[in-house]
Amino acid sequence: MRAMIVGCAVAALAAGCCKECEVAAKAARKPVSEVRFVEIDPGHFHAALVLNRAYEGVSKDVPVFAPKGPDVEAHQKLVTAFNTREKDPTAWNEIVYTGDDYLQKALALGDKGSSVVVLAGKNNKKADYYLAAIKAGFNVLSDKPMAITPDAFKKLQEAAKIADEKGLYFADIMTERNEITTILQRALVAAKDLYGEQEKGTPDDPAVTKVSVHHFCKLVNGKPLQRPGWYYDTDQQGEAIVDVTTHLTDLVQWETFPGETLKYSDVKMIKARSWPTPISAADYKTSTGLDTWPDFLKKDVDKDNVLQCKANGEFTYALKGVHAKVSVEWHFIAPKGTGDTHYSLMRGTKAEIVIRRRRSRRRSPPPWRSSTRRIPAWSSRPRATDGRWSCRRSTRSATRRTSAR
Known about the structure:
Layout: H1 2-14, E1 36-40, H2 45-49, E2 61-65, H3 70-84, E3 93-97, H4 102-107, E4 115-119, H5 123-136, E5 139-142, H6 150-166, E6 170-172, H7 180-190, H8 192-195, E7 208-217, E8 219-220, E9 223-224, H9 234-237, H10 245-256, E10 267-279, H11 281-288, E11 307-319, E12 322-333, E13 341-347, E14 352-357, E15 368-369, E16 375-382, E17 389-396, E18 402-403
Parallel strand pairs: 1-2, 1-4, 2-3, 4-5, 5-6, 7-12, 14-16
Antiparallel strand pairs: 7-13, 8-9, 10-11, 11-12, 13-14, 15-18, 16-17
């Protein structure tokens, strides 16, 4: 089990590294006058969130190809809600095809060079979808994770190589690099007079830490999000180590070694673990609307009729000698007035740069383990009134902090 967990963690890291011996020759990417979205099997709400707003230069007509069933129906409801809301309604015209040959129909579309295939759904099918789309000449915008198994990762490598050779765009939808606090943290790390040099840390006291907590039950567009039943099956969705951690490992690389192309040999995996989130039958019904456990989930249901969903994971590794820790937890629902949390620490020889998104608007501090070294600490935290982020500096005698989770 440990070997499998570490292997998955390495795959999550490797997605951001180049293949040392095979570098594809990049073809020029051609500009287009109007872009067209093409949705294939949109089973995750991220596919609909791409259509949460209008974009200049993007066609309002969106072909959708999917197997008939609740996933595509839920997708259509979300897009209809965007089109009919009072504030800033959209005007998307989805043209839906649900025949058994939906993938073949999608790949047969014309104007491939100006089309962008949007993928967000069952992760065990995603690699086959984007590889087929890239081979057919489509640009691809895919939700993470792009690979949840070693075989799928090989397809990811192949698709990236072909996309470069053909001059196609192949990118992740949900990048965290555009989040303002991350941009600020990266800029402050680059200010050597403030930050100093990047510390190396140790396996037990990493110099870079990224921790996030997410929730299965949440609101989207003001209404409770209905998850598809398969979302809780890690054979289809993937375990935590290959899902949200793709964001966090990308940020570790982007902030610690900006502008550098990393290799697999730069990564040394040290330790990894995963653990389940218990989901009751009542919670599962609240989240999915399903009254009973599907057959594919029964393997993970214990004797007390509780689903043990393998949703949590963390790993510690060294990247070019810098020790980093990435941790992701999934709870069922956040306490009232709270939500998802994010914590990010970058430790230099002169200062720490910290992003701390708290569970609530109250200012009670989280638990920290401290040392006596005196360095300036910078933290980015939400203001109590409007949820925006502010940055402040303080000098303390105990500021070398790591989460006591």
